[in-house]
Amino acid sequence: MDTHFDRYLPLERAQSLPSQWYTSQKAFEAELAQVFSKEWMWVGRSEEISKPGTWITAQVGKESVVVTRDFEGNLHAFSNVCRHRAAKVCRAHRGEGSRLRCQYHGWTYDLEGHLKTTPEFEGVENFKKEDNSLPRFHVKTLGPWLFVSLNKDARSFEDQWAPFLRESTPFQIEKMQFVKRVEYSLHCNWKVFIDNYLDGGYHINTLHPALAGVIPYSEYRSELFSCSSLQTAPLKSKEGDGVSQVRKGTAQYWWLFPNLMINLYDGVMDVNMVIPEAVDRCRVIFDFYFQDVSQENSRFIDESLKVAHQVQLEDQDICEEVQKGLQSAYYRSGPFSVSREKTAYHFHQLLAETVNL
Ligand code: FES
Ligand SMILES: [Fe+2]
What we know:
It is built from eight helices and 17 strands. The protein has 357 residues and is of the alpha+beta class. Strand 14 and strand 15 (260-265) form a beta hairpin.
């Protein structure tokens, strides 16, 4: 397999990750095991389980995970795979109650993942409920979000988030209120979507006609941090233009290794997470937040969601084309624009540093 990638080359001489990183099952499995099972992964909003006795489920790499809030208000995260015959204990996205009940044969677990009841299990030898708790994971909150790590030696969460917390203060994200989640399924490797996000605005004028002129190409800037990056653009207002009515201020586009993106505008935040589903398939979650959620602002919100959807359709279309191109025998990798694509190279470097193929 031709996966050689030199992450020490200067940007001027660097090449992107070889196409087999995007098309081979081996690379996909390695990423799940060495990145998605190792890093802190965004799993949702803490307000979803603000009430004691509530839970949500999420996908972390190959693992289905439950995050609960117990009746003392503490958070817990554990495996969502039943210790009996491996059915999902919780099949819904969210729920509530003091017990989690597996739908298959009715075993129940408490909110800390301890096995509590096992119908018709008398006489089974060498079986103790206390040895059959659901394996526990690490859980943390940051701002309005929940994160889970399957690995106790995950990269420092605080270090990773410090630049975001420092630079995003003018947006007052604590005042942003969640309004809507939209999900898209894409026929491409998860990295194709991230690459598209991290090209420093290179594709704006060609792919997104409605954004050209609103996001001033020449004033687009990128900054790299240890495991995140920031792209900024002072947005321009265009008379009578729908996009510039709903995208204002100096936009910040954050990427946090490996798969989380946070877009900040005046009064608007949208959080995107890419979930790898197969080597050539991923799901993208968009959570939209607004500072003003009053009825008077509903037109602004609707228009803003419409703009995001249109941009996503354009990005999705090109990402799916790129995935087809990556399967060509005549393409291996390509160079980076020095003025635009340092953020994409930074992503490839971090990934190659983390994944041993
Ligand atoms: S698989 Fe859960 S009770 Fe049987
Ligand atoms: Fe785009």
